[in-house]
């Protein structure tokens, strides 16, 4: 049986990412810069053998997957599924506001003077989730337990399905905080301040029902795609 590995990609840069606005279950399209970055990512991944592809149900994740598969040598033949369990966190009534506003409110709820002090004190994902849940006046945000169950089950089910079919690589497009949270669930030493860039690749190995982290937030495939694009133009 081949090794089972997930190539987990954060979606391309969107309008709200550029404007530094909170984007969880709400959605904005990829910018031209975001599309270009994913175009290069697709070129960098074009020769990787994928047994299946899975994205969240958010438009930005679906568009990212479309662009990657469009560059892949076997893109049309790779089975593609959508799984809403790997979507971003819901920020409820905080959605659409500026990042600085949300990250200004949450420290006060958790009794910290500011964001930097909150992070310096190694605030937990559970505390952040609970603060969002209590700050949300629309009652749409998820509790920590609900988040844990859906994210854990979503990614484990993808890996288990691949493993059951004989193993191999799966291409997965998800979201920044969801990926960082998954890394924390795998190894709780991974804290809230995780740099998961748009278009970066996090590789996870799955064996005997357990994930291990092979690589976090790599932009090497984008760089490879840029180099390949330049070669093709020369």
From TrEMBL:
Q: Which SMART domains match?
A: PGAM
Protein origin, superkingdom: Bacteria
* GO annotations of cellular component type: cytosol
What Pfam families does this protein's entry cite? Answer: His_Phos_1
Record flagged with keyword Hydrolase: yes
Q: Which InterPro entries match?
A: His_Pase_superF_clade-1, His_PPase_superfam, Phosphoglycerate_Mutase
* Keyword tags: Hydrolase
This chain's protein is named: Phosphoglycerate mutase
- Organism listed in the record: Candidatus Enterococcus testudinis
């Amino acid at each position: 049986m081949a090794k089972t590995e997930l190539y987990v990609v954060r979606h391309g840069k969107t309008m709200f990412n550029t404007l530094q606005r909170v984007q969880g279950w709400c959605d904005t399209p990829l910018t031209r810069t975001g599309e270009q970055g994913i175009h290069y990512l697709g070129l960098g991944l074009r020769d990787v053998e994928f047994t299946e592809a899975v994205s969240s149900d958010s438009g930005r994740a679906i568009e990212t997957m479309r662009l990657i598969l469009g560059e892949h040598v076997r893109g049309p033949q790779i089975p593609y599924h959508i799984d809403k369990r790997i979507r971003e966190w819901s920020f409820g009534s905080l959605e659409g506001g500026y990042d600085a506003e949300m990250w200004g409110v949450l420290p006060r709820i958790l009794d910290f003077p500011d964001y930097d002090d909150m992070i310096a004190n190694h605030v937990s994902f559970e505390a952040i989730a609970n603060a969002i849940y209590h700050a949300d006046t629309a009652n749409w945000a998820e509790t920590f337990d609900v988040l844990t169950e859906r994210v854990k089950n979503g990614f484990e089910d993808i890996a288990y399905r691949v493993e059951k079919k004989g193993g191999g690589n799966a291409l997965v497009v998800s979201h920044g905080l969801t990926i960082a949270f998954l890394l924390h669930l795998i190894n709780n030493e991974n804290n809230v301040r995780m740099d998961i860039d748009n278009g970066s690749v996090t590789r996870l190995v799955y064996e005997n029902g357990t994930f291990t982290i092979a690589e976090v937030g790599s932009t090497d495939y984008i760089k490879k795609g840029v180099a390949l694009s330049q070669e093709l133009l020369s």
